[in-house]
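User: Design a sequence. Structure:
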């Protein structure tokens, strides 16, 4: 969808927007199905980038210490526990600028991916920038989906990150798609952006060809020591509105109610599910931030009559619409 179409949706009365989003949701998805994803930081801290929201940057002083890549046996223990707790997707994140073919750490990560893929869950990774060869090797190792958020609009992005460009993000997404991986790509609300920035972020994501398989909608969790540590909390009605617009603009994607969910009441989370969210991060930790406990989530799902989506590790990535230009384009 283009910006004007998204703005027209945003300007609708709240309940009118929710009605439209609900109609789209019911057309494409089981009303009561939710994807449960577990996110594990397999390499924490010490990142060279300067993302203003991230406590893992080596440029900011906080309690997050740089750690080495976790051992495969420990990661497998965590992955098995996630599966036993009901997770259908296991996501692994590493605080790196990117990965390069032939390096020791890339070979270790591929080995870890191959082992995790034997558990029958979907495997998602977020490892920073990818080239064509790296993307192909990750797909071959067993990656189901690659996460690479664009965070905000192209115009606002330089205010949030200066050590890489918005175009760098798009290039990685294109490489991952060309390798046959599904894309998990969304944004963060609460970065000092305007409504226009939020809609321009969705414009970019919705015009990917193919569209993302999943779209995380994150609410900033202000981290001590980061430039955005004093930011105001995001209003749950703003989150629900963006989720509803995302559901309409990207109907076949899983819309993930992601970071910041711990700050919302059960009623607020229920509103987001009604607006079109059908995926959550499940487990008490999100990289360096807190998340609702599994027990809390199980109880909430029972109250709402929701059930976990069955994993699909053999999921085939959406193919390009040949009548449209492949996007994002690489300059």
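Assistant: Done.
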């Amino acid at each position: 969808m283009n910006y004007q179409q998204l703005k027209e949706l945003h300007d609708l009365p709240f309940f009118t927007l929710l009605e439209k989003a609900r109609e789209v949701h019911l057309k494409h998805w089981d009303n009561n199905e939710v994807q449960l994803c577990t996110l594990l930081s397999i390499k924490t801290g010490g990142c060279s980038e300067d993302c203003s929201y991230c406590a893992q940057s080596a440029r900011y002083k906080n309690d997050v210490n740089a750690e080495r890549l976790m051992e495969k046996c420990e990661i497998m223990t965590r992955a098995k526990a996630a599966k036993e707790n009901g997770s259908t997707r296991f996501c692994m994140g590493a605080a790196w600028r990117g990965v390069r073919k032939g390096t020791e750490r890339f070979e270790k990560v591929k080995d870890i991916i191959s082992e995790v893929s034997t558990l029958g869950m979907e495997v998602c990774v977020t490892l920073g920038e990818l080239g064509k060869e790296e993307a192909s090797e990750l797909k071959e190792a067993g990656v189901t989906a690659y996460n690479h958020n664009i965070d905000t609009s192209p115009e606002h992005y330089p205010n949030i990150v200066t050590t890489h460009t918005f175009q760098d993000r798009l290039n990685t997404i294109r490489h991952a798609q060309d390798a046959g991986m599904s894309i998990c790509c969304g944004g963060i609300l609460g970065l000092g952006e305007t409504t226009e920035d939020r809609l321009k972020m969705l414009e970019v994501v919705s015009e990917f060809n193919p569209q993302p398989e999943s779209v995380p909608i994150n609410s900033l969790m202000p981290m001590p020591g980061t430039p955005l540590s004093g930011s105001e909390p995001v209003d749950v009605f703003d989150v629900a509105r963006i989720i509803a617009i995302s559901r309409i603009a990207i109907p076949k994607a899983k819309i993930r109610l992601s970071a910041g969910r711990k700050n919302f009441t059960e009623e607020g989370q229920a509103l987001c599910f009604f607006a079109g969210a059908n995926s959550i991060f499940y487990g008490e930790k999100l990289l360096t931030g807190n998340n609702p406990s599994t027990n809390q989530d199980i109880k909430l799902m029972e109250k709402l009559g929701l059930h976990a989506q069955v994993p699909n590790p053999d999921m085939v990535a959406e193919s390009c619409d040949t009548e449209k230009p492949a996007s994002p384009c690489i300059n």
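The chain is about 35% helix and 15% strand. The longest strand covers residues 33-43.
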